[in-house]
Design goal:
- It is a single chain.
- This protein has about 350 residues and is α/β, with parallel strands linked by helices.
- It contains eleven helices and 13 strands.
- Strands 3-2-1-4-5-6-11 form a seven-stranded parallel sheet, with helices on both faces.
- Strand 1, helix 1 and strand 2 form a beta-alpha-beta unit.
- It is globular, with a radius of gyration of 19 Å.
- The termini are far apart.
- The mean pLDDT is about 95.
- The protein binds nicotinamide-adenine-dinucleotide and UDP-4-deoxy-4-formamido-beta-L-arabinopyranose (WQD).
- The site of UDP-4-deoxy-4-formamido-beta-L-arabinopyranose has 19 residues, from helix 7 and strand 8.
């Protein structure tokens, strides 16, 4: 029998890509999303890619009543992949209570449901943000977690602690936290991808929107960092590679191959790329020159960070397959798709 997996935030950016991979690997999935930051049509597009349109339940997982109703109706769930969260770092500074409420109440509700409805496992979307500016690079999983700079980052740290504490005493539940570095790009079909609300905070959507002419120019936040070209360094990984890691994590839990009740993995390429190198990559794959100006540093920015993914390589048998240019190319294809789609609607 196919294993049933619940994907919260399933019409969102990473959730939708993971849904595709899960279906293609033979899992039976149900998406839950309140469509706060995504659109229901994404479920149809997942169906178009895979040939199987997953059911989508539209509700807020902070709503315990609705969540209980859902789990009473849907039995024999093997795992929850928990992507649903608010994720805009800047916004979280101005709306801390909304962020703590949405990101933590949702998680607590799910953990309680796991205990109550015998759901044995969870994969949690965590972030490299928990490391702050690491003293040593590349970052291993046992690098110290630093005090969070934003309420968003804090929700990931607290979220991980809640899961660690819960899985240490509730014997019938186990979890894996995946600390993503910087996911970029889109599915090669270019019909699902990242959908930023308003002006993007993140670099790659800002680059692709500038390339398309929606933004006049890109502001590069600082070129006086202690890095080879003076701009910040990140570890950009293709979202499809990231999605595939989730399938492996799910299988590890469902097939009881996990070593401990709670495990943490870094998911990155292991390679640092500067902001200017990211711009050059876009220019290479699109043939479009990006107009940019150097501005002051963005408050709270980390100078440089990239992953040591060797633990995930070894334990999960996972590594990234796509190059920066390949990922950037799909980000560009997606940008063009979504703009044409919006124009024709
Ligand atoms: P996203 O905003 O595209 O997807 C999240 C989805 O969750 C959205 O569709 C939204 O509508 C839904 N959602 C939010 N709160 C909900 C709630 N209470 N009930 C039901 N649905 C709700 O974000 P994403 O980029 O796909 O990120 C997924 C997860 O990965 C998040 O937890 C995020 O913090 C984490 N993460 C993302 C990145 C990144 O760069 N994108 C990096 C590290 C970690
Ligand atoms: C990358 C670099 C910017 C926009 C975010 C979250 C973090 C985690 C990963 C979720 C930085 C520069 C950006 C622009 C620029 N996500 N930049 N001009 O900083 O790694 O962090 O994603 O958990 O929590 O904060 O990614 O894409 O915002 O920025 O120069 O218009 O690009 O200064 O150096 P970051 P990012």
């Amino acid at each position: 029998m196919k294993k049933k997996i619940i994907v919260t935030g399933g019409t969102g950016y990473i959730g939708s890509h993971t849904a595709v991979e899960l279906i293609e690997e033979g899992f039976d999935i149900i998406l839950i999303d309140n469509l706060y930051n995504s659109e229901a049509v994404v479920a149809e597009r997942i169906g178009k890619i895979t040939g199987t349109k997953p059911p989508l339940e539209v509700f807020d997982i902070c709503d315990k009543l609705k969540l209980n109703r859902f789990f009473k109706k849907n039995k024999d769930i093997a795992a929850i992949m928990h992507f649903a969260a608010y994720k805009a770092v800047g916004e979280s500074v101005n709306k801390p209570i909304e962020y703590y409420r949405n990101n933590l109440v949702s998680l607590i509700n799910l953990l309680e449901a796991m205990n109550q409805y015998n759901i044995p496992s969870m994969v949690f979307s965590s972030s490299c943000t928990v490391y702050g500016q690491p003293e040593k690079l590349p970052v291993k999983e046992d690098s110290p977690v630093q005090p969070a700079i934003s309420p968003y980052g804090n929700t990931k740290q607290i979220g991980e602690e809640i899961i660690r504490d819960a899985t240490s005493v509730i014997q019938n539940i186990k979890a894996i936290s995946l600390r993503y570095f910087n996911p970029i790009g889109a599915h090669p079909s270019a019909i699902i991808g990242e959908l930023p609300r308003g002006v993007p905070e993140n670099l790659v959507p800002y680059i692709t929107q500038t390339g398309y002419g929606i933004r006049d120019e890109l502001k590069v936040f600082g070129n006086d960092y202690n890095t080879p070209d003076g701009t910040c360094i990140r570890d950009f990984l293709h979202v499809v590679d990231l999605a595939k890691a989730h399938v492996i994590a799910a299988r590890r839990l469902v097939e009881n191959k996990n070593r401990k009740n709670y495990e943490v993995f870094n998911l990155g390429t292991g390679k640092g790329v500067s902001v200017l190198e990211a711009i050059q990559s876009f220019e290479r794959v699109s043939g479009i020159k990006i107009k940019y100006t150097i501005k002051g540093r963005r408050p709270g920015d980390i100078e440089k960070i990239w992953a040591d993914p060797s633990y995930a390589n070894r334990e999960l048998g996972w590594k990234t397959m796509s190059s920066l240019d390949e990922a950037m190319k799909t980000a560009w294809e997606w940008e063009k798709y979504i703009r044409k789609k919006n124009l024709s609607e």
